[in-house]
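C-alpha cells in:
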C-alpha cells in the first residue's frame, strides 16, 4: 500500500476528484492548506496598491492505494491538475505499513 498526497490548486479539485472516481478511487481525504514553493508567493493588486501574498491556498488530497495502482493514480492526478503554470502543486508517494478499518477490523488491503 502507498499513500498518495497531492497538493493542488483549489480550482482543480473537482477535475481531480472526477478523474479518481473514474479509476474507482473515490475514497480520499481533503485538507485546505496554505504554503509556497520556489516562487515564494505572488504579488496582488487591490485598489491600486500592490501587496505580497506569501502563502497561497491549496488543497491537499490524500488517498491510500494498492501498490499496483500507484502509477495510474499519480498519472491521472497529473493530467487533471496540470495547467502548465508555476504553482500547479506536488505529489508525494510514501509507503503505508498497515491500515485498519475501524468498523470491521479488516486490515491492510482489505481495509482499503
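Residues out:
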Amino acid at each position: 500500500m502507498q499513500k498518495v498526497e497531492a497538493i493542488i490548486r483549489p480550482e482543480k479539485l473537482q477535475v481531480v476528484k472526477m478523474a479518481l472516481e473514474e479509476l474507482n478511487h473515490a475514497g480520499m481525504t481533503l485538507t485546505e492548506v496554505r504554503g509556497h514553493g520556489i516562487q515564494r508567493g505572488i504579488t496582488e493588486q487591490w485598489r491600486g496598491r500592490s501587496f505580497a501574498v506569501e502563502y497561497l491556498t491549496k488543497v491537499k488530497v490524500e488517498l491510500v492505494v494498492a501498490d499496483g495502482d500507484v502509477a495510474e493514480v499519480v498519472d491521472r492526478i497529473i493530467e487533471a491538475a496540470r495547467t502548465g503554470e508555476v504553482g500547479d502543486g506536488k505529489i508525494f508517494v510514501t509507503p503505508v505499513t498497515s491500515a485498519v478499518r475501524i468498523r470491521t477490523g479488516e486490515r491492510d488491503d482489505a481495509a482499503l
